[in-house]
Specification:
This protein is an alpha+beta fold. 30% of the residues lie in helices and 33% in strands. It has helices at 14-25, 28-32, 43-49, 90-104, 119-127; strands at 5-8, 52-57, 60-69, 74-81, 109-115, 131-138, 141-149.
Length: 158
């Protein structure tokens, strides 16, 4: 595979986005007893809003991230990596992009939510600096809400 790059999604990418999300979340259906929320999203609408970004390796789209601006923080609404490419650091690359994008836009916080049954996600997010801020049922899903405070790195000149 070629060096991964991240770019904004276009309307032509919507079928690939839907496929990656479906593949990445499919195994949670049995655990949750219903399709995970991200599999039900309107990705054509999300792409037209300009909030979907793709990770490409060569000509293949292997990951997606949905970043929704709010008044005070950037919402990481969804992140998904093709199961065949998981475990290779692509998700971390997308998360690093989200942090850089948040800072570029003037935010100092990223928020996200995950399902309560997705405990491995909660542990992973905690390991990279996210803190749990609450739990609630929202849109008929039991969610865990998390946030990460961002700090700009300043390089000292000598």
């Amino acid at each position: 595979m070629n060096e991964p790059r991240i770019r904004a999604a276009t309307v032509a990418d919507v079928p690939d986005v839907v496929e990656i999300v479906d593949q990445a979340y499919r195994h949670y259906i049995a655990r949750m007893g219903k399709p995970p929320g991200p599999t039900l999203d309107d990705y054509a609408g999300r792409v037209s809003e300009g909030v979907v970004w793709l990770l490409e390796e060569g000509a293949a789209i292997t990951g997606i991230i949905v970043l929704v601006p709010t008044t005070n923080y950037l919402l990481l609404d969804n992140i998904a990596v093709s199961p065949a490419r998981q475990g290779l650091g692509l998700g971390r690359q997308l998360l690093a992009f989200a942090e850089a994008e948040a800072l570029r836009r003037g935010y100092h916080e990223i928020r996200l939510y995950t399902h309560q049954t997705m405990v491995e996600n909660q542990h992973f997010y905690a390991s990279i600096g996210y803190e749990e801020t609450g739990r609630a049922t929202e849109a008929d899903y039991d969610r865990v809400f998390m946030r990460k405070q961002l700090r700009r790195c300043f390089q000292r000149r000598i």
